[in-house]
């Protein structure tokens, strides 16, 4: 039986899966690594920790597959991070991550050099603190001696490809989150980079997600137990790869996805690179050759996890049951989930969360339900911005929060879109493996691979009705907080 491996380099750890030709998971392994926060607003990881985790996970996976024929490896990972390499291929320091907020000055620098409307037209997005391009300027501004030694800057999963094969490469879906890829041309935007006095040579070559970028080196084969020379496929950024794992692509019109993980993500494929004029939601390249709109609420299940930490005496099921008992609207209590700033549609790292309308009548269940409703209404505001550009007939739900019928019913009501659950395993590692099925020649095209591996679906709890009045009150509450944090 021929198998492919899919690797997902996440924020908390690396996940590796082995898939058969139908996309069914045969084996899985994980390896963790630390997250460092040396200063408020900074988040970074050591790329060498990623290397150790990849070897550990691949060894563990191989031990579960005695005698199996592995024919290819696909990659996925957290987007926007920056691995700064010298000419010898050694990291110059820690890699700032997607949620790192140290680059406010550099975002201003980009907007002074390139009008926001022009940057959105070219790259699909305004300058964002978490993107890779501002991190590159930060290195130049804060560590000029390191910048002089810089040879290439890679995205996290592309650094993994470099370790496995020695190839310096990227692909469109992940590269479109750098902030310097011209989406219409699908190439590094030389005029944007010239305006910032940056050389295009600092970035790797880019191409299609399913293409083979190199082959497993003898050193990594020996370290992992795999066969040297295995084709390694470029892969995709985590959101695009996760969408492929769900079968969400340009080939299934009207089907998008909703992730209720630490962040809440709405993903809707689109054929054309048409950005939201104000850049309030992201436009990226999809791994299927098309594009996708992406709207993000930064603290979705992360908000619930934060609240749960305040009540260690009870379990999550108890808290959710208490939330079920509370009425819709929580008797005037609203929660704004801006615990780590906000991405869509406000693009403000300075926003902060709030409970508004708190009274002596409110109990623990009200607080929990207010969090569920606040996240749902926040995602509703995100979809209101996306809807004129791309509508979804249904969304496929993933992430830990999708296990809650109440939460999916609230989100479905806030968005006005039916939500389905997928049956079976999903995630970015699965999407990376599906791309490897194409790169290794198991399927002649990505479309055929997606048709063969698409998971089955089941409708979730019907959307709750009556959320329009709640949405208006929530929008008013948001306006109060926006006014408070506008400076």
From TrEMBL:
Ranges where the Carbohydrate kinase FGGY N-terminal domain occurs: 4-245
Annotated site (Important for activity), which positions?
A: 8
Q: Name one Pfam family in it.
A: FGGY_N
Keywords (A to Z) from UniProt: ATP-binding, Carbohydrate metabolism, Kinase, Nucleotide-binding, Transferase, Xylose metabolism
Q: Which residues form the Carbohydrate kinase FGGY C-terminal domain?
A: 257-439
User: What catalytic activity is recorded?
Assistant: D-xylulose + ATP = D-xylulose 5-phosphate + ADP + H(+)
Residues annotated as binding substrate are: 79-80
Concerning InterPro entries, the annotation shows: ATPase_NBD, Carb_kinase_FGGY, Carb_kinase_FGGY_CS, FGGY_C, FGGY_Carb_Kinase, FGGY_N, Xylulokinase
Cross-referenced CDD domains, in alphabetical order?
Answer: ASKHA_NBD_FGGY_EcXK-like
Annotated active site residues, numbered on this chain, are 238
User: E.C. number, please?
Assistant: 2.7.1.17
Which top EC class is given? transferase
Q: Which domain of life is it from?
A: Bacteria
Tell me which PROSITE patterns the record gives: FGGY_KINASES_2 (PS00445)
Keyword Ion transport in the entry? The reply is no
Protein role: Catalyzes the phosphorylation of D-xylulose to D-xylulose 5-phosphate.
Q: Which PANTHER family match?
A: SUGAR KINASE, XYLULOSE KINASE
Similarity section: Belongs to the FGGY kinase family.
Protein known as: Xylulose kinase
